[in-house]
Amino acid sequence: MIGHRLSASRFAVALMLLLVGTHSVQAEEGKSAPVEKDERLHSDGKGWGLDRAKVVDQDRPRVLLVGDSILNGYRKQVINDLSGEAYVDCWINPHHQSKHLNKLLEEVLEHGPYDVVHFNMGLHGWQEGRIKEGTFKPLTREYVEVIRAKFPEAKLIWASSTPVTVKGNPKELEPKIDPVIVEHNRLAAEVMDELHVPINDFYALLVDKRELARGDSFHWNSPAYKILADQAVRSIRDALKADPK
């Protein structure tokens, strides 16, 4: 977040940094990427931003992965597994449901076209007041509608947010945060059901495998990310093989 007023030119630079990929999710020197002030919700050391594949074959399908630092944990395997089948762009961001996010999404989609969009947002929205009461479902619905307005033929896949565990004791679910994640997953699933968007239930995949949690509440070890990557790849391949709408 920006703590002081920016000139029009500086604001444009900050916005471009978020939206324009340079085949790296790291911030360019001298420019600042979006900051998550809650230190528990960091980018997992790889930065926020849009990582764009180098497109050579215009006939090869293109995929956009959207998520937070959890995506940083499994994106490399997805890219590798789909190598030769599809180009994969990754937008790793610290945002939650908001008009701001939906506007940024419009700009990111300009880097398409995309045949499949696999998306998640959730771990950055649990704090009270971040998402105004009564707006979660309308904003989530609008998010999907932004994608469909831009790419009406694209296949969409929503991934639920992963469990949150007790710091230092990952076998236990965090008693205050995890119930919010569960509720947000439930509300988002209702929207996806309404809009006929298939779901990758990442929460269910890991909730009984908490021994794979890293111990910092939010992040996971490599075996857990492999589980997520395998599921993402399966669903993306299925979507790419599906008949057009």
From TrEMBL:
Keyword Signal found: yes
Keywords attached to this entry: Signal
Keyword Cell division belongs to the record: no
Annotated GO MF terms: hydrolase activity, acting on ester bonds
Signal peptide: 1-27
Protein name per Swiss-Prot or TrEMBL: SGNH hydrolase-type esterase domain-containing protein
